[in-house]
Amino acid sequence: MSPPPARRRPAEWEPHEATLLAFPADGRDWPGKFGAIRWAFVEFIRRVAEAEPVLLLVASPEHRAAVRDLLRRARVPLARIRFLLQRTNRCWMRDSGPIVVRTAEGGREALEFRFTGWAKYGNHRLDRRVPEAAARALRIPRVPVRHRGRPVVLEGGAIEVNGRGTLITTEECLLETRVQVRNPGFGRADYESVFRDYLGVTNVIWLDRGIEGDDTHGHVDDICRFVNPTTVVACVEDDARDPNHRRLAANRERLEGARLEDGRRLEVVPLPLPGRVDFEDLRLPASYANFLITNESVLVPTFNDPRDRAALGLLAELLPGRTVIGIHALDLVWGLGTLHCLSQEIPA
């Protein structure tokens, strides 16, 4: 019998101490929509705070005062909000924030993967400071992740775990050798070694590609999510004319042939995508799979689409014991992400 892993990344449905969020100080990720975005953030924060504390990054004392006023006006319980002064380039805490793991000794560590703006955007140096600031606020050790003598680049949206040893990711995001390359020269064995050593993962399921419009180049949290240790929801697109139809069908085929860490088959439940969402000249990565599980609720992005109701109902069946709440995300997705991308849970 093999010894227990030195570290383990808990599943999202396990108890949280808090959720890490960052309030935008400007509208660079949502050009032309920043007024609406501030109130979208307030509503998201309000819903998270109903279920668990929020560790909220703000850029300055003046920004904190302005955000506090917005939250007060919306009747957000300020006692549930802990403000942390830390400037950022962007607000996507899933990707720039620390990944907190539990250790075999019963403690916690904040893993610091190198953030490079999804190997696409140059302005990310402030975001690199988020893991250190969060670890300091949480009073837990910060552990820079290294492999083959160099820092490892990895965003939290690129991986999905069941907390028992299985991780799902995509080849498009991590194994691409020409576009948005995170770790030049890394292959499957390198990533699987990192996942084993730092996340307690013994079994990796590699999917093919993410959805069209995703500027991260294949993040898994827009296409496939665990809802319990043996079950995933996997996005499907029924319209054969849509480019996502073939991509998602290929992923579902891999999932249906996959095994869990104990050799059992994975249960795969289809989750619809909303209808195509476009703004200006871009197709946006709208997906119900970008939900966030909190201690008491499941917060699901909605898009004024007839499929909203079906997605909410399905997730309510699969995640009993939590209140499933839809949050309007048509403005948020103009930033090329929604609820899960913006948040990072801190395991208790």
Topology:
Blueprint: E1 7-8, E2 16-22, H1 34-51, E3 54-58, H2 61-73, E4 81-85, H3 93-96, E5 99-103, E6 108-112, H4 117-120, H5 130-138, E7 142-144, E8 146-147, E9 150-151, E10 160-161, E11 166-170, H6 171-174, H7 188-199, E12 203-207, E13 224-228, E14 231-236, H8 243-256, E15 267-272, E16 278-279, E17 282-283, E18 292-293, E19 297-302, H9 307-318, E20 323-328, H10 339-342, E21 344-347
Can you give keywords for this protein?
single chain; 348 residues; alpha/beta; L-arginine/glycine Amidinotransferase, Chain A; 4-stranded mixed beta sheet; 10 helices; 27% helix
Task: Describe the overall structure.
The structure is a single chain. 27% of the residues lie in helices and 25% in strands. The longest helix has 18 residues, at 34-51. It contains 10 helices and 21 strands. The mean pLDDT is 97. The protein has helices at 34-51, 61-73, 93-96, 117-120, 130-138, 171-174, 188-199, 243-256, 307-318, 339-342; strands spanning 7-8, 16-22, 54-58, 81-85, 99-103, 108-112, 142-144, 146-147, 150-151, 160-161, 166-170, 203-207, 224-228, 231-236, 267-272, 278-279, 282-283, 292-293, 297-302, 323-328, 344-347. The protein is globular, with a radius of gyration of 19 Å. The strands form 7 sheets. A 4-stranded mixed β-sheet has the order 1-5-6-7, sandwiched between helices. A 4-stranded mixed β-sheet has the order 4-3-2-21, sandwiched between helices.
